[in-house]
Amino acid sequence: MLPLCIGSPSGDAYRFRLLCGTRRNLGWARIKLVLREPFAEFWDMLITVVFGDGSVAQVLLSAGQPTAPSDNGFGVYQTINWGRGLSIILGTYVAGDSEAYLNPPITFSNRFYLRLSWQRFPIFFMAQFLGGFVEAGIFS
By its UniProt entry, which PANTHER family does this protein fall under (predicted)? Predict the structure, then answer.
């Protein structure tokens, strides 16, 4: 197990006190603090793909509807573009404290170019991978 008490109190004093202080009965607070970024990566991956795939599904499933205001159904190609763009914005907004890598290939490229540490890479990768699996369960 990796030690949770790394660094000095000069950076984030509250976090250092919480992880390395004398109060040891704050178990959930410590877990929540350590897993905050992986949870954010899970949710940003999930929301990005759900909203992006939802815009595609809306266009494909409404094609040829007789009650649609146009001949193309309720959506056109531009609807997919807007849906994907807004899904990236929502995913980035949900990521919050995390750096919003949004998907495993971006996480891997940031690890490859040394912007992400080896300690954080597998955790972020698995969180995004699980977010994709949960999304697949939602749409199947």
Answer: AQUAPORIN OR AQUAGLYCEROPORIN RELATED, AQUAPORIN-9
Taking CA atoms, 13 is separated from 7, 20, 116, in Å, by 10, 10, 23
User: What type of residue is 51?
Assistant: F
Which residue did the predictor score with more confidence, 114 or 40? 40
The alpha carbons of the chain give a radius of gyration, in whole angstroms, of: 20
Q: Hey, CA dihedral for 136, 106, 47, 31, is it positive or negative?
A: positive
CB 19 within 8 A of CB 30: yes
Q: What is the mean pLDDT of the chain?
A: 80
- Give bridge partners of residue 106 from the DSSP assignment: none
